[in-house]
Amino acid sequence: MEGLSSARAFLLSTSLSSSEANELIRASREDLLSLVILVNGMERGSLALATSDGLRTDCFDLFHYHLQKPVDHDRCMEYDWMKFIIFSLNGIIRLGGNYFNKDATHKQRFMLCWPRILEWLEAIIERNYFQEDEEMYFRMMPVLFKLAWIVRQEYFDEEELFLLAVRLWIGHQGVDGKDYYTSHPLVDLIHRKIELSDTIKAEELLQSCGTCAETLVAKAVTRLKHATYGSPSMDVTQMRFLVNMLADLIPLSERTALEVCSRKVGRVLVRILTRIVERVEVPEEDMIPVRSAQRIFHTSLRRRDLKYALCLVREGFLNLILRTASFLQVEDISSERDSERARVAHKISESMVLSELILFLPYRDLAITSWVMLLNLREKQMAVEEFVERSSNEFQNAWKALEGAVLEQAVLQSLYEVKYAADHGVCSNSSRGLLTNRRHLKKCSGCSVALYCSTSCQQEDWQQHREICKKMDGKSLREMLNKNHRFPRRVATLHFLRFEHHLTRLALRKNIPRCNVAVRIDYSRFPFEFGVLDYHELLDDTKHPPGHVVVAQEFSRQSDTNRDKSVILILRMAEKEVPYIVYPDRAWVKEVCKPEDDLVDEETIYVGEDGEGLSCNHFDALRAIINLARKRAVIGKLLLGDICVYEPRLIRKAVSDVMKLLRDGEGGAISTE
């Protein structure tokens, strides 16, 4: 090379000789173009720069020389001044981990330069010294952080680096209006904090730099929307990064988890991801952000927030999860039919997410909303069966369980609308002991367990009830007053009668007398599980919360007649237990008629604590209505082509016909027409 004019001729060269590299290194202290050519040569794999440790060390000394320049505001506003800094930072990256990690001497060079690197990185983003090099700056950041990790992992424990990573995620809006940012450094540091169990410190650092969980999550959601709607075609790669970013924020702190698992984020995710799966043709790589989102849905649903689950279903989550599960490739089906492939990080599959949603079906609002949404899928002419058929065995089983549970809850809701299986209670005043509709009784405001038919009855009973009432605590009282528990309580009361023959056998095995049996139904697992225990166990306040003790004591002071008519029912909902005294009526489960020969076995969604599936041992109203609705749906589909079992008119007609049969006591067959 002859002079700098010759050096400039090598701007686009793929290689530099040793002499050319040496001349560029000398010139690059003052000449910006020489520095650019040198760094480009390193980037393009110049053999001399890649193999000569001496040349690479000379390059390091050059970059360190520029990075030692002071962060002077006036000079930083000069174009060339900042270009020297940006390309020196890029040069450090090009030297790479192999160079700095070669031995202790090389590692020491990086450690010597690191404070200056960090100071310049902070100054550039905080004071807007980009000089239109935002693209290069944010592209360098993940590589520089990775280099720092290779050389000295302890850097990731420093507060200054965490604050810089947060700032890089908040980003910068360039003069071109583009949103420049990078998420990788913050994700890496979050993983480090989690690994060291130092998430509390992470939250403090967020606050110290003027940001918070809401800001971090809001940025991700805004960028996710832009990647989806901001251009004619969706930026699926960016969507994948952002969905993963949201998932990675969950374990950082309880506040970030609350934000990511919020309804507003869930609503956005369902809407955006549905746009992907509803396209006519969806490339496999476009499904990556959809499947990555299963981590967020799964974690959020496991928090047992009913409002969140309702939000997802109302936004069309059943449509989304069904379509997502159906993207199991044809070639995968034969080899992985019996074991669904975990296609996303942390092994979260669509069937696992759907199974978490099923645990909300005991709640009336979720069951009814799911009923409506399943009906909507059919009304939109969506080929539900075809989508299910293309999914894994695990998902098919979960979807079948969902449909069965929703249908049963829909039938029960329709039965309750016609006053079937009314909720009963007994006046706690022993001199009255009146059994009547629960709506006609008033609860004791102190415990919500004792019921009274009048104020005078409550006053008369106060001396006996007072000491029991005082044991109730606020937490137990709030759970007992929760209106969302009313529907599952009524359903569980009915099923106690339907499965009484099996529960009696369980009690006999445990040597529990019939008069002492209490029933626990666990809605926190699926299939839902019935178990039995001796109610005297609930009197032990060292093992059970005050609410259980109050219920057990109120139960024990009933008359023998009323105790024979009642049972303690404990609902286990989302890791909480809520006890009630209920009064089941065996008339609710009397046989409607003789079942027909082609009767399909009852699809049970309940098991006993021994693992055995539970079903009613005769043809009661619930079983008759479900069977009738299914038959009429099959016939209607053959004749009309647009009838499904979730049609409200079909279910209500079946309810009406069965209830008429019960009232008339005819005991004959029911027409399927």
Automatic annotation (TrEMBL):
Decide whether keyword Zinc-finger is in the record.
yes
Highest taxon, organism lineage:
Eukaryota
Which keywords does this Swiss-Prot/TrEMBL entry list? Metal-binding, Zinc, Zinc-finger
What are the recorded GO MF terms, alphabetically? zinc ion binding
Metal-binding as a keyword of this entry, yes or no, is yes
MYND-type domain: residues covered: 427-469
This chain's protein is named: MYND-type domain-containing protein
Q: Specify the species.
A: Schizopora paradoxa
